[in-house]
Amino acid sequence: MVFPKPSSESDLFLYSNFASRYARDSLPRFSMPENSMPKEAAYQNIHDELQLDAIPKLNLASFVTTSMEEECNKLIMESINKNYVDMDEYPATTDLHNRCVNMIARMFHAEIGENENAIGAGTVGSSEAIMLAGLAFKKKWQNKRKAEGKPYDKPNLVTGSNVQVCWEKFARYFEVELREVEVREGYYVMDPVKAVELVDENTICVAAILGSTYNGEFEDVKLLNDQLLEKNKQTGWDTPIHVDAASGGFIAPFLYPELEWDFRLPLVKSINVSGHKYGLVYAGIGWVIWRTKDDLPEDLVFHINYLGADQPTFTLNFSKGSSQIIAQYYQLIRLGHEEHNGELQRQCNGAEGKFGEEWAL
Ligand SMILES: Cc1ncc(COP(=O)(O)O)c(C=O)c1O
């Protein structure tokens, strides 16, 4: 038998991978190894260790997309080395981001003219999107209170006790009191009537969930809007609504187009959605959309110019990958309204037991 002749040290390694000293000695866990190793050894060691993970496609507990088409995987690899924040270097990527914001905002019925750009941002997920939306509400409320000469040190936020942990994080990180409406036997989402009872002059917003993390149920945003309009009329306040549509934002427009939960309701000022859930992209993408420019206080937007021209940014982090944004754009144009509908029908049927019948009100 003839064995191919290794021509370099790394070739040599290929033929002795599992018998080499790199496979015999265990790798240090707490400090960097003193010596380097061939690339094949590094790959094999890590690859083998990762076999201990579950297979993502079989992970039914995942809240995120685990499978995309080969063409999209290709686009992801082609853009894996692009830093999204270098907008002047990567103007085409920036444009795809803006197209996504425009498409999603229109899907949520934002009040924008035909050729007007919507106000929104791509984020790492719904959690970052919620931090940004929450900060915008807090800032708007503070600015108003300051202008009225009233105290602005005790902001609060009203939600159901079924909120995802990111709302508790927002409240703790940014010092906002979280007022939770307790769920009760047989009613496992926020009761809009009780939520409005908790609102006072220090409430920066009421957050409703479209697709509760625990059972997928939609909260009644329309009832909340109507009750809050009534309270605002009586008190002279203008308490707004945020909709956490992390899961439902890419469900309701397709499966329940008549359901009014979005910018069709006047008090809904911002909405978040996870691109990596039913936006059908791998983990690492979310979106926050504001109803109008006035709903995002200008003093939260930073203008940077050291990467080229003036760039407005409103995100918590600076550098991030471009792949997920490009992948989101791929899904939007690839599936369109028509196929998004079909894909979601298939996924919701497949997810029976996880969400059961609870997707609708
Ligand atoms: C209702 C709701 N809001 C927010 C989040 C946080 O989303 P992300 O993982 O995209 O940060 C989740 C995640 O499960 C969720 O279900």
UniProtKB/TrEMBL annotation:
The gene is LOC100812201. The modification N6-(pyridoxal phosphate)lysine is found at residue 277. Belongs to the group II decarboxylase family. The keyword Plastid does not apply. InterPro entries: Glutamate_decarboxylase (IPR010107), PyrdxlP-dep_de-COase (IPR002129), PyrdxlP-dep_Trfase (IPR015424), PyrdxlP-dep_Trfase_major (IPR015421). This is Glutamate decarboxylase. Its cofactor is pyridoxal 5'-phosphate. It is an enzyme of class 4 (lyase). Its EC number is 4.1.1.15. Gene3D superfamilies: 4.10.280.50, Type I PLP-dependent aspartate aminotransferase-like (Major domain).
